[in-house]
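User: What would this chain look like folded?
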Amino acid sequence: MKKKSPRHFLIVAEDIRPELNGKFSLMGIITSQIELDKEPDNDHAIFSIATYGEFDRTATPTRMHISLNDPQGNAITEGVLPVPPKSNKKLVLAGKFVNAKFKNSGTYSFSIKIDEDQYTKEFSVKIT
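Assistant: Here's the prediction, encoded as structure tokens.
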């Protein structure tokens, strides 16, 4: 019997902030191409980018990892996410990479790995 992948969704935004009531505020939800200008005298553009995701889970994960990947699939920046203390069947993840360096136009992605499950959200960037 083939294992069914957990249901999930990921949102990419310019900023995310935790609220006092345990909720999150997303600002600048990205639904189209991001246009960025290269920094003067540099080969890259600087941009802060965030992601929010919800994942249906039947067990508490043992490890979680997030990365922001360039069009070739190389990690621009990455990190280990804290594992929640117990499962409530829905895992919520929120993260932000401040001042990420974008060198080329193309399709970038957020990759989130929860134990052996991999989730990806792509977005387009144009560098001028």
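The first strand starts at residue 8 and ends at 18. If you want, I can go into more detail on any region.
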